[in-house]
Amino acid sequence: EPEVTQTPSHQVTQMGQEVILRCVPISNHLYFYWYRQILGQKVEFLVSFYNNEISEKSEIFDDQFSVERPDGSNFTLKIRSTKLEDSAMYFCASSVPGDYGYTFGSGTRLTVV
Amino acid sequence: AQSVTQPDIHITVSEGASLELRCNYSYGATPYLFWYVQSPGQGLQLLLKYFSGDTLVQGIKGFEAEFKRSQSSFNLRKPSVHWSDAAEYFCAVAARSNDYKLSFGAGTTVTVRA
Questions:
Q1: Considering only residues 82 to 101 of chain A, which have any Cβ-Cβ distance to chain B shorter than 8 Å?
Q2: Interface with A, mutate which of B10, B44, B57 (most A CBs under 10 A)
Q3: Which residues pair with B76 in a beta bridge?
Q4: Contact state of B43 with A100 under an 8 Å Cβ cutoff
Q5: In this predicted model, what pLDDT tens digit does every residue of A42-93 receive, in sequence order?
Q6: Sign of the C-alpha dihedral computed for residues A103, A106, A108 and A109 taken in this order
Q7: Are A104 and A90 in contact (CB under 8 A)?
Q8: What is the residue-averaged pLDDT of chain B?
Q9: Pairs from B47-52 (Cβ < 8 Å, separation ≥ 24)
């Protein structure tokens, strides 16, 4: 069964450093998403991406965040200057048009120290 | 305000017993409804989804869910729980009013005792 692949599974970074979280969506999917789950809290929407541009973003997704699909297969989330409160599990997801039951990756646990 | 509520934070059930997880939503129209499961250290796996039609939906791993419009509910059930069902379960909705973004409930942690 096709999978959404995320790397790395765990990342520890110092506050103020840049991090890039990587995702390989399912190949025939056209919509891509990032969600975040702070420990003990709800899974929250960050951003959706379609046709090589952001289609929607949440209030969480401020200027410190950016997304890119650099080569037609990878989908990345960059945090320019990490803060302690960015520590969370970050999930990538993808879907085909009309199917809102996204396929999620296994997540990247980001720890900012 | 639009919301997804899972009233039970934690449920403990004996292996072989039945399980029911509650989910209520508050949206203007019937949204698309989903249940996801997250095992420890793992990602979110889709158990089942409801878009329209038969209000009793069958999913993977022996789970089913019933959409009840009158109660704005989409409760998840399993007749006989296995130890491997210990996980966190999330109800989620996608609605036109929310541009079809997935909105998640807070989750219910299921513990299975032998």
A1: 91, 93, 100-101
A2: B44
A3: B21, B65
A4: no
A5: 899 999 998 899 989 999 999 999 999 988 889 999 999 999 999 999 999 9
A6: positive
A7: no
A8: 92
A9: B47/B76, B47/B89, B48/B76, B49/A100, B49/A101, B50/B74
